[in-house]
Amino acid sequence: MSSKAEILAALKSVALPEHPMPKVEIAPRLDDLIGQYEAGLKACGGTLIRDNALAALQSQVDTLIAEGKQVISRVDAVTGNREVPSDPHELKDINYAVIPGQLGVAENGSIWVTEDLAGIRIAPFICENLMLVLKAEDIVANMHQALAKISLDNTGFGVFIAGPSKTADIEQALVIGAHGACTLNVYLV
Amino acid sequence: MSQAQTSVGHAEKADIFCKDEARVDWHSKALWLLRQKRDRAAAAIPEWEELRTLGSEIKLHTLTHLPQYLEQFEANCQKNGIIVHWAKDGQEHNRIVHEILSKHQVKKLVKSKSMLTEECHLNPYLESKGIEVIDTDLGERIIQLNKQPPSHIVVPAIHLKKEEVGELFHNKIGTEKGASDPTYLTRSARAHLREHFLTADAGMTGVNMAIAEDGAIVVCTNEGNADMGCNLPKLTLHSMGIDKLIPNNEAASVLLRTLARNAIGQLITTYSSFYHGPKPGGEMHVIIVDNGRSEMLKDKLLAESLKCIRCGGCMNTCPVYRRSGGYSYNYFIPGPIGIAVGSNQDDTNTIPWACTLCGSCTYVCPTKVPLHNIIAYQRRLKAEAGKLPYGKAGYMPMVGKVMSSPTLLNCAMSVARFSLRYLPGSLLKPFAGAWGKYRELPKAPASSFEAWYKKNRSK
Amino acid sequence: MKIALFIPCLVNQLLPQVAIATTELLEKLGHDVILPEGQTCCGQPMTNSGCFNEARSTVMKLLNAFKGVECDAIVCPAASCLVAAKENFHEYDNSPEAKAVIDKLYELTEFLHDVAPVDSFPRAFPHKVSLQLSCHGLRMLELANASESMKPGFNKMAALLEKVPGVEILYPEPRDECCGFGGTFAMDEGAVSAKMGNDKAQAHAKTGAEYIVGFDPSCLMHLDGLIRRHKLPIEIRHLAQILNDAI
Questions:
Q1: pLDDT confidence of residue A7
Q2: Do A15 and B266 touch (CB under 8 A)?
Q3: Residue B424: what pLDDT?
Q4: How far away is chain C from the Cα of B196, in angstroms, using its nearest Cα?
Q5: Which residues of C touch B354 (CB under 8 A)?
């Protein structure tokens, strides 16, 4: 008997009585979604740029490139100085990554980013600094709405990103900048 | 841990831990801070209790339909190009992992936190086969360098002070002598581990949730170590217990709302990553592990412990864990959930008694695992197996006899009351054991209530 | 109402003043109080150690003391013993007679709050009290909302004490952490039990209260032993004692 068959056979004698799948019926909090989102993002260490965001982003990227920084952009309106490589290791010196988010979640400040949008899976993690572009109309209230909306059908990888990477593994002291990006700016358009 | 260590019971280890009271206070406070953050995060969501109920029901539903969901999960994974393996136990799991790694001539594996690989003792197994295993979660890396197991499932190095981490990093990764600033130490570890991420041949993670309907696994970290480890090398492996399964995205939406909030009071982990297939040109393996879980499911109460989503909230609230430390439990998972799932592995048979049955863990739990009931039940299982600790097998039958006989009980208690009233404390203390060692003995009344009642109320 | 007292062994033998206060309080409130004979321990020291065989005769002895006793309610001034009695009666005896007993079991606080509510207490108790929210009463009888729970807050002991003029209610920080008694835990795990108890006693003392007031005599006895050992400026009182003095 294969291990699979053995495990499945053993699972025939589960002692718990059959339990139905519950319905998730939680009313979303719909007031001031952008305000809620901004508060959520701030709580997880990110910064929201609301005013004239796309222009601000482009001018920031121009300055960064002039300073010699390595910038990869996956947002059509913003031009970087690096392309998506086939080998992810080539991105080890990336200072900034500009990536469009598919949707934002007001309750926790997270943004859903997929492999397609990022161009390559490693991009949002390996960069020193992450810049995500989010459309205001793509903000949903909570995770129930978010997970009802996203689909993995056409992508091998997706991630909710909530702020810069962080850790509190040494004496509970919060340190921003663990293994992933050290900063996160979200540009609301 | 060595055999010699595990044969010491919880009380004895806790007694040693308690000798440094300032450190106990420091440890307890650090964990209580997490509980307080959790309370604030939970209170901010009006539907918190509803989410706990949903979490429990989703898990109960999945656990009672596991064969169906496991097969659906496997089929969907395969459709997505993921290679699925099944392991009955830890040994088989380790063998499968090693086979995959050796097929790809992997010399260095970067691993993100996985309690399952701890459970299977994967690291020493792979190291014995000549494969270098690098734990990449900061806390895990600290204890790996310190040659210790985790003392907590979410904050594994919570027992160490920053000065101790500073000293360790100075010796192992060359940080400045005497430096203990957490930001400096964290950034140094970032640089040290970045090198390992860039040179690893394969990445491995645990699994927070496995979604049957999609054939996807969800991995949650704050540090981004799982994603750095999985998205650079071509080869990735993910180990999951059969209890990690959930039916669909909707179920994930419930658990993703409670997991980080209950663990550390965060709204959500920085990264909640859904791996749905290998990267272009890559290879992705999922290893589904039983290792005793199907056996636990055969017991109605033990089965409920498999609802656990490993948030660690029960440890943070547990007054005993906070004052005895993660290494006093004789099982790789400490605290209430460790007692619930690991009591049969404790050769000292003491961990079910490392609990006052206060029930705080049960109320904290985001999936309503009835932890204190399971712990009480583990005591019963020990008693039935004739494995009672602390001399209970000797005195419990006596207690039963005395308590069930009013004459004996009255005699015994009269002697006790008399002794408490008339004998000097110094004479009594040696007989009062642990009670008198720490506390004053009760002030004994002249007579029992029964006697008072007979005298004052008898009609 | 006709009330049968359930006085657990510890209260009977070591804290008779709690049982006397309970008797007097219920009588002053106009109830007819009786003490069924042959009561003993609820079996908790044994069942909490997993020793169900050893506990059987004790539990049955206690249950039998109440079977067939004519009364409207069986009231106990010890939350933890009451919980254990309820669970253990159910464990060993599924008969209708046992169910009749179980259905009448009430802890004193819940009896005074839910079953035979008291409007007000006439005599003032002008003192600061720090509430000891013991675990089994809190989480198994839901005498108050536990701090882990996000349900709407309520506290039956506080609600009763608020009816006594002059009482100022305070809470230790943390509010409802276990005091570390835990039955045989106090002996098996002496060091942790004492550390928990000391932390708790000090948290109570820090409120500036003169009394620790609670519904569980065993926790109070444990705290008392530590308070006296460390000479803390606070004393223990059972809720029944405060309420009895307020009438």
A1: 98
A2: no
A3: 63
A4: 41
A5: 189, 192
CATH number for B85: 3.40.50.10420
For chain C, what are the domain ranges?
A: 2-115, 128-245
Q: Do C226 and B403 make contact, defined as CB atoms within 8 angstroms?
A: no
Question: Quick check: B400 and C14 CB within 8 A?
Answer: no
Do chains B and A touch by CB distance (3+ pairs < 8 Å)? yes
In this prediction, residue C46 carries a pLDDT of 92
Is B182 an interface residue toward C (CB < 8 Å)?
A: no
- In chain B, which residue's Cα lies nearest the Cα of A16? B300
Q: What CATH number is given to the structural domain containing A67?
A: 3.40.50.10420
d(CA B393, CA B386): 8
Q: Which of residues 387-416 of B touch C (CB under 8 A)?
A: 388-390, 392, 396-397, 399-400, 403-404, 406, 409, 413, 416
What integer is the mean pLDDT of B179-202? Answer: 97
Q: Which of C55, C64, C47, C52 is nearest to C6 (CA)?
A: C64
**Are the C-beta atoms of residues B404 and B391 closer than 8 Å to each other?**
no
Closest CA to B155 of B315, B41, B307: B315
Residue of C nearest to B387 (CA): C50
In a domain, A13, yes or no: no
Chains A and C touch (3+ CB pairs under 8 A): no
Chain B residue closest in CA terms to A27: B47
| Model confidence, pTM | 0.96
| Model confidence pLDDT, tens digit, residues B375-398 | 999 999 999 999 999 988 888 888
- Tell me the ipTM for this assembly: 0.98
Mean local confidence (pLDDT), B404-429: 71
d(CA B62, CA B68): 9
Q: For strand B83-87 and strand A175-176, is the pairing parallel, antiparallel, or unpaired? A: unpaired
Total of domains in chain B: 3
* Sign (positive or negative) of CA dihedral A82, A88, A91, A97: positive
Residue A44 lies in a domain: yes
Domain extent at residue B283? 49-141+199-291
Residues B447 and B414 in one domain: yes
In which element (H, E) is residue A131 found? strand A129-134
| Cα gap B356→C140, rounded to integer Å | 14
Q: Does A31 touch chain B (CB under 8 A)?
A: no
pLDDT (tens digit per residue) in A76-93:
999 999 999 999 999 999
| A vs B: CB pairs below 8 A | 257
- C2-115 domain in CATH 2.60.40? no
Q: Is A47 inside a domain boundary?
A: yes
Q: CA nearest A113 in B: which residue?
A: B273
The yes/no answer on whether domain C128-245 falls in CATH 3.40.50 is yes
List CB contacts (< 8 A) between A8 and chain B.
Answer: 67, 70-71
Looking at the complex, does the CB of residue A165 fall below 8 Å from at least one CB of chain B? Answer: yes
**Whether B281 and B137 share a structural domain:** yes
Measuring CA to CA, which residue among B190, C183, B210, C66 is closest to residue A179? B190
CB contact B24 to C (< 8 Å): yes
* B447 chain-C contacts, CB cut-off 8 A: 16
Better pLDDT: B428 or B405: B405
**Chain B residues touching C195 at Cβ < 8 A:** 18, 21, 24, 323
Range of the domain at A173: 32-188
Provide the domain count of chain A.
1
